[in-house]
């Protein structure tokens, strides 16, 4: 039996790195359903969870997988599922339940090209807006975008930590290439991995109000079987957790659900900046497309064009302030993503005319090459010289 | 005066501050719910280690009234939610209390798979033959030719035989009663709570507001039918049980067998080194 944290150097795929990250983060329950290109995460969890006395279950569909993940979390386990587009669509229903009931969990979407069955074995980043708004109603969500197997390992730990801290489902928006890419992954010593756990109730059980928020807007979470007799519902509820069918109760609950994220943006939003200090042209990208962008920046610099990259590590909540500051500083922004312009529109919204925004993107099926990006960089650069 | 001061014997397990409940006069859910609560008490299970999970619908409101850890989930998904809960903490007693529309139409797939896996949970289905909360539309349990707002000329479909479905799927404890047969029902739920494995109890209950008024079943007439048409046949093969308001309604404890639960099988096959 192997330990939870496989300290050492490995040559593994992103999917396996993701599963190992989950185990290192303390995940002890996985419910899933086979789907390309995320299946390897489930397979690896099926093999590895028994090592750490965890449970793996293959459910009848992704609806059930997401429901089981929430049930397990309410029983006290750090829990997770992994899927791709079609399964992600099915998970949207219970993702909303997780948001409304503030149930921590991690959902991985190894994106493939859609719509519908699309290109099951080929990459895309077409589910970014679904990640933001895919479940009905208005809400805040946290979504991360990994660019490499190594980052998938660490981001999965971060995803669990954010999910536990803010009691919210956290999405990892990977893609087929990152999931299937084999690279060096270094797993640190267990003592060097910082883990967070959900806030827990203290004090008298009969006075406990399960949705009364602490100072940072997050309520302590009691698990089933601990004697707190909690009631948890997807209906609009008050701080006792009881259904409350009024506009006032809705406003209060929504302000808590959105406020705990909006008030902590500085702790949640993460970006990577590369050669941006003197940049005239800023690329904005995430996931696998950010790696092509990185190469394009270096190539542009060699050709004398001052380019830089803002890589979105957290895609949701959107790094609005970073984009605003950047738009005020550079001559143009180029969004690089494997879709026909989803984050591009967000960048436009935040740039608000301070700088022109261009898109390098296509409908998916293959990665964007550095050359394709470079071409747009050169065009933009010429555009400024005119 | 005694009405406002005397305590109901089930007050200890009810969120009394949430009463009055939403159930209509003449509705059978409350009686089925009381049976469930009494059985929880008499079965001797540890109530602090007991959770109730419901889906959506009138019966799905059960979780909102019970003073236990209670989870009111999404439509049809109570069983997979309960599955995750039970697997993550096998010490919990997990009871699913929900309706026929929730468990057998939108949630039908989850039901058969949880029974197949023999997840150690107890599922109580209040079958009122229609979607009560949305106004009485046809369900997967609505009798053929019955009138509902979505079958205004009569239901062209055939209903499920729920005990047979549970049996074919692998449930290890299966019973059917009506809410009129309170003692038998309570006894069955008590047994189901004490059994390991996937237990299923169907409770027939009138819905005068939704089903009854369109199908000439006033509340008292439903109860009379439950009494007059009942054929109590413990041990009957689920393929032979009938549910026909004209011919007869087979009631009883039909199946009570033992086979390894999901967690037992998982421990044996996947984690032989574990303490479980």
Order of helices and strands of chain A: EHEHEHEHEEHEHEHEEHHEEHEEHEHEH
- Write the CATH fold name of the largest domain in chain A: Rossmann fold
Distance between the termini of chain B: 53 Å
Which CATH C-level class of chain B is it? Answer: Alpha Beta
Category from helices, strands and their pairing of chain B: alpha/beta
The number of distinct structural domains of chain A comes to 2
User: Which band does the percent of strand residues of chain B land in?
Assistant: 15-25%
Number of helices of chain B: 10
Which CATH first-tier class of the largest domain in chain A would you pick? Alpha Beta
Largest interface between protein chains, with number of residues from each side? A-B, 47 and 40 residues
- Contiguous low-pLDDT stretches of chain A (5 residues minimum) are none
- Sheet with most strands of chain B: 9 strands, mixed
Radius of gyration of chain B: 18 Å
State the total count of DSSP E strands of chain B. 11
Q: Give the uncertain stretches of chain B in residue-range form.
A: none
Oligomer: heterodimer
Q: Compute the number of helices of chain A.
A: 13
Q: What name goes with the CATH superfamily of chain B?
A: Thiamin diphosphate (ThDP)-binding fold, Pyr/PP domains
In short:
The complex is a heterodimer of chains A (about 375) and B (about 280). Chain A is built from 13 helices and 16 strands.
What does this protein structure show overall?
The complex is a heterodimer of chains A (386) and B (276). By secondary structure, chain A is α/β, with parallel strands linked by helices. Helix content of chain A is 39%, strand content 21%. Chain A is built from 13 helices and 16 strands. The longest helix of chain A has 18 residues, at 149-166. The radius of gyration of chain A is 21 Å and the shape is globular. Chain B has helices at residues 2-5, 29-42, 62-65, 78-88, 100-106, 108-117, 162-169, 182-194, 219-228, 262-269, and strands at 50-54, 69-72, 93-99, 122-127, 130-131, 137-138, 173-178, 199-204, 230-232, 243-244, 248-256. In chain B, the strands form 2 sheets. In chain B, strands 1, 2, 3, 4, 7, 8, 9, 10 and 11 form a 9-stranded mixed sheet that branches. Chain A binds chain B through residues 1, 28-29, 31, 50, 53, 55-57, 59-61, 63-65, 67-77, 79, 93-94, 96-97, 222-235, 242-243, and chain B through 15, 17-18, 48-51, 53, 63-64, 67-74, 77, 80-89, 91-92, 109-110, 113, 262, 266, 270-271, 273-274. Strand 10 of chain A pairs parallel with strand 2 of chain B.
